[in-house]
Specification:
Length: 152
C-alpha cells in the first residue's frame, strides 16, 4: 500500500501565518505589542527556545511573529510604517501614544525653542540674569513646523 497524499488544506482566514522573524525575543515582543495596540491579534513562536538557548536563534529561524491570515496585509502595513520611522529609540515601535505629536507630520521628535537671542538679551538687561528656561515655542525636528507652546 502506498501512502496517499493528503488533500491540501483550504486556506482558512483563521490560520496563523508567520509575517516576521527576529533574532532577539525583545524585538519580537516590541513588534507584537505594536500590532496589539493597533488591534491585530498575534502570537510569538519559538520565543522560549531562543530566549533560553540564544545560539538556537539561527537554527530555529528566530522568534516568529504570527498573525491570522486575514490580518496579514494589515499587520505587514503596520510593521512597514513603524520600520520607516527613525530607529533612534523604541519610539519607532511603541510610538508613545500619549505623547504630544507634530500637527503636520505626526512625529514625536519635538523640541522646545528658547525665546530667541533678542528677547533673551532684553530679559537679561531688565533682570540682570538670563532666563533660558522661558520657552514659548515648540518645533518639530522632523519637518520643521513651529507653533506656540501650550502652557498647562
Amino acid at each position: 500500500m502506498s501512502p496517499q497524499n493528503p488533500e491540501p488544506r483550504e486556506r482558512s482566514p483563521e490560520r496563523l501565518v508567520t509575517i516576521a522573524a527576529f533574532r532577539e525575543p525583545i524585538e519580537a515582543h516590541l513588534a507584537r505589542t505594536r500590532l496589539e495596540c493597533e488591534g491585530v491579534a498575534c502570537k510569538l513562536a519559538d520565543e522560549h527556545i531562543v530566549g533560553v538557548y540564544g545560539g538556537a536563534s539561527s537554527a530555529v529561524g528566530g522568534v516568529k511573529l504570527q498573525v491570522r491570515e486575514r490580518d496579514r496585509e494589515r499587520a505587514l502595513r503596520i510593521l512597514e510604517e513603524t520600520s520607516a520611522r527613525p530607529a533612534t529609540s523604541a519610539e519607532w515601535l511603541t510610538a508613545d501614544l500619549d505623547a504630544p505629536r507634530c500637527g503636520s507630520c505626526g512625529s514625536l521628535r519635538l523640541q522646545r525653542e528658547p525665546l530667541g537671542p533678542a528677547r533673551s538679551f532684553v530679559v537679561w538687561l531688565l533682570l540682570g540674569l538670563p532666563l533660558p528656561f522661558l520657552q514659548r515655542w515648540q518645533r518639530c525636528r522632523r519637518c520643521g513646523q513651529r507653533w506656540p507652546l501650550k502652557t498647562p
